Task: structure prediction
Amino acid sequence: AGSGYQAWLGYRQLLPGDRFDQYAVFNRIHVTETDSVIQTAVSELTHGLEGILGVKPEFAEQGKHAIAIGTFGNNPVVDRIVTAEKIALIGQEGYVIITDKKNACMAVGAATSNGVLYGTFHLLRLLSTGSDINELDIVDNPINRLRMINQWDNMDGSVERGYAGESIFFKDNLITEDHGRIRDYARMLASVGLNGIVINNVNVHKVESKLITEFLPDVAKLAAIFREYAIKLFLSVNYASPIEIGGLTTADPLDSDVRQWWKEKTADVYAAIPDFGGYLVKADSENRPGPFTYGRDHADGSNMLAEALEPFGGMVIWRCFVYNCKQDWRDRKTDRARAAYDHFKPLDGRFMDNVILQIKNGPLDFQVREPVSPLLGAMPSTNQVLEFQIAQEYTGQQRHLFYLIPQWKEILDFETYTKGKGSPIKRIASGSVHGNRLAGIAAVSNIGDEMNWTGHLLAQVNLYGYGRLVWNPDLTAENIAEEWIKLTFGDNENSINVIKNMLLSSPAIYECYTAPLGVGFMVTPHTHYGPDVDGYEYAKWGTYHYADWHGIGVDRTLATGTGYTSQYNSPNFERYESLADCPDELLLFFHHVPYTHVLHSGKTVIQHIYDTHFEGVEKAERLVTEWYSLAGTMNEVLHKQVAERMEEQVEHAKEWRDRINTYFYRKSGIADKAERLIYS
Ligand code: GCW
Result:
């Protein structure tokens, strides 16, 4: 109980009384099917009811005092309770949960076993959060078809941008033997509705290249674990595999030997894993090989793999994180923010139907604040998947509190106008704007082998919330937080309010004491943890802020800058292009302005920087006080674990505050109006 290992699945026992009596009526399970996903649902329901009621539920022949779970047409009790009208509303992965009060029974019914599993987890969530279940009448379908998690795990056991220990999948260049831990991870993912996992890092080195050859038997064992939880396994592949492990002299996508090599290897993969999902590819990106080496483009490259996967129903997920990572800081024409759109937009229409482009939410790289990537929605004839990062690379590395759901909500609700009004990102991600067959959302995981999975216990909410939000982008950040808190800490109203406020206020607090007004990348090179205003200013990565004595920001306007703004549709283009209309929080992303420029808030840029940095630290201090107010209401070890991180956050926030304030005071020579302490 003190480890955090159970995360949101640590069902707490109810005491006789109120809900207990209500729930105890449904203490038997009626099931008629035997396939493995249904069996998973049964064992999850058994485990959950046992935890909540304190007794092992029995199996019932009949529907009285029972929860019937099953697919339509295969379970008489489900069929009795669920009407044809309801069935018509249920898609491939959806489900109904209906109470039949008269007969004291309940049905979790779906068109597929996967749907039954999701419905079962939904019911458990209701029980575990103490909901009224006497009159349930729920119809639910996922909004997104692909609901993916990406591990950035390497076979040596390290996790790229991992902040919670080592990999649970790999160790010493082998696949781990600890399948129990992997199974528990599968449970967590399935419980929030995720249905695909890429188990290895997009940066595929020599040894990981062999996951599709030498290590295939072990990969198949992992696929079997995930299969029971309705999750498809995918692999990241190395574009240069034909050379590196295939003994060929080229990886040219138009070379017939290369094409043949991929076809054979892919056939082997499907022989071992018949329901294999497909390949994820990072090509021509950050020194990874790709089709550019051979004078080919990304349509050529991805289509070659798509052709190999197509006979088996597999897909290629091709990342659009392609930019020049060897830029010269003196070169003011190249703008990294433009890169993805410039590379991919002209290729629209050339991709096979089983290719999906995976696009990061912003044009740069998961900063605290970035505009939404203009490539999302800009290719009507191409499948796209939106990529988020649950791992807190630039958002405090799971040492600072940062609830990511509000940020993702803003992105999902962003109106692109790609097909006029009514084209928000969430409808592009789901495929509904352009009518894509394949669409959805992916995100980089934040877990590792630390006992509580995420390092910072409260960072579990981001994994939980990711799944819930991808299932239904219309859920609110408040509701998701509340659910998670109840599942994790129980039903105490005060704790719920305190933790909820902490979570909801956390992103703004972090943004306050770190990079101001959308400027980004004022971080320590490589580790990306902590402040270093000029850390990347003269580097090759294309992430500059151009601060001088007079002003700061990147002119990305069409009129006088890099022209990036023109990648947006009207009226977003005009809004970002105009200094007067550009939203404050993105000002320095789009414009270079003097420190004396007056924001919509009425403050000058320099005063805004000072104010937010002082306020940020004060608010971070308040978070600590709030957390301490909960001492005694929860497991002591867990409380202490979080308290330590929260205190570290405050100390580190002070470092941010002072470095940033001093930097800008020295650059501008303008004093703080409020005369607070800024080191000169
Ligand atoms: O943000 C950058 C990270 C790299 C990562 C890359 C990517 C996996 O700093 O560590 O590599 O993005 O998304 O490919």
